[in-house]
Design a protein that fits this description.
alpha+beta, 4-stranded antiparallel sheet, 4 strands, elongated
Length: 159
């Protein structure tokens, strides 16, 4: 999917001002509302825009501990383990990976004891061989996509 300069301006607005109306976005961008809506529809259809819901804070929800748990899986059981992990509410993301382990999960917990309970639950999943946990101390670069969007926009402008 090719993203042009107008698309990047639209994406920037969505990131910076997520609660603004389509009408207001069109006014800010100086384009027709129909043009903007067509662009938004295409960006959603092409998978560039994947959601419109709020971003939630696990810490504010009472789960301030963040850990990355690497999970080694018995060969041939990756799908089953992945399905079992989806049933653990404290696992907020899980990825198949290369390197040390088969899966990497992002786990949130209330405290260290709760994290240990979650890890013990993971170890008991059939097909899990072992886990390795790394606890995050402080977020240094929050999740962000605007610098990437801006870089893509600059590259599109130069084409």
């Amino acid at each position: 999917m090719s993203v042009d300069e107008l698309d990047t301006r639209i994406l920037r607005l969505l990131i910076e001002e997520p609660r603004t109306s389509v009408r207001e976005y069109a006014r800010i961008l100086g384009i027709a509302r129909g043009t903007l809506q067509a662009r938004l529809d295409r960006l959603e259809r092409d998978g560039v825009i994947t959601g419109t819901g709020p971003t939630l804070s696990p810490a504010a929800l009472g789960h301030p501990v963040l850990a990355f748990v690497h999970v080694e899986v018995t060969q041939g059981h990756l799908d089953e383990v992945g399905e079992a992990l989806a049933g653990v509410p404290e696992i907020v993301e899980a990825f198949s990976i290369t390197g040390g382990g088969d899966l990497m999960t992002r786990v949130v917990a209330r405290d260290a004891g709760h994290l240990e309970d979650v890890i013990q639950r993971l170890i008991q999943v059939p097909g899990v061989v072992r886990t390795r946990t790394e606890v995050a101390l402080r977020e240094r670069v929050p999740h962000r996509l605007l610098p990437l969007v801006e870089a893509i926009g600059r590259a599109a402008k130069g084409r």
